[in-house]
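Annex B. Sample input.
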Amino acid sequence: MKMRKYSKTLGAVGVIAAALSLTASIGSAQNKGGNNVVRVDPGLDDVLDKNVRYEELKSDYFGISEGPVWISEKPKGYLLFADIGANVIYKWTQENVMSVYADKTGYTGDYNEAGFIGFANNNGRMNILNFGSNGTVVDPQGRLIVCAQGDRSIVRIEKDGKHTVLADRYQGKRLNRPNDLVLKSDGAIYFTDPLQAGNRTMEQDRGGVYLLKNGVVTLLNTDVQPNGLTFSPDEKILYLTDSRRKAVMRYDVQADDTIANGRVFIDVSADKAAGNLDGMKVDVRGNLYTTGPGGVWIISPAGKHLGTILLPETGTNMAFGGDDGKTMYIMDRKSIGKIRVKIPGALWKPAP
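Annex B, continued. Sample output.
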């Protein structure tokens, strides 16, 4: 079993990250080989072909692969995704060619001043653990909007590569470490900002779900330890993963873009397989895909667990892509892979 070799770390967080990576490597051996789709309910047949398999594209390479988003362009669209450890966003083409699309996407400061986070050597790059960008969306003008974790802000990357800070504070205090975000069709941005236990540099005293609208940051919810989030196809429901409760929450989106009536959509705490609730996406029929125990859970709009796509490592996020929106690209920390689905993603748009 291949293990990543870590250099000397600086600080406790770096040591912990290395240990977690080692644990993930051990767990990966358990999921390799055999059928990698678990069918829980016959309704899965409407979503996945019975003979479909998850295919790894590049494995054991990244610090933490995250924040995937599909870019529809002619003649061929491509995938962008973040490597949190390397502090870059990569471009992955449909011909399976990878290149660096943007550098310093999550932290633009001096690496020497970030030593308390800890360093790890990954594929020849000196990585600043947990400092790269995480969640990513594309605005109508084709610009990336990212959760810049190291800079503790929501940032728009302009076409010339410059960074425009859209939000970095709430009530005068710096955000903790923005994790994921989703863009509503009216321009409102919803993002999560968890509380990292034990990190004395964090200024917000609790994790929260925030709304960024017309330049104003509003705190929507503090009852959860927030992680990933996504909308239903009609944008009337906001789904949110709660790391503390180990459940997907469901909220009604109000006319003023606030949220109300939070309730548990599905609880996964009884499943003890490796893996956490993290990133989420929905297809055009409202089926929810979320990382969870064992891999990617597929859940009907009624909250029924239909099946699980098993992953070699702990899943982090996914995005619908391809020329028809029916290829799902999945991030699982050190690797990326793909699987064909029958229903296109709700956020996927064809090339103009």
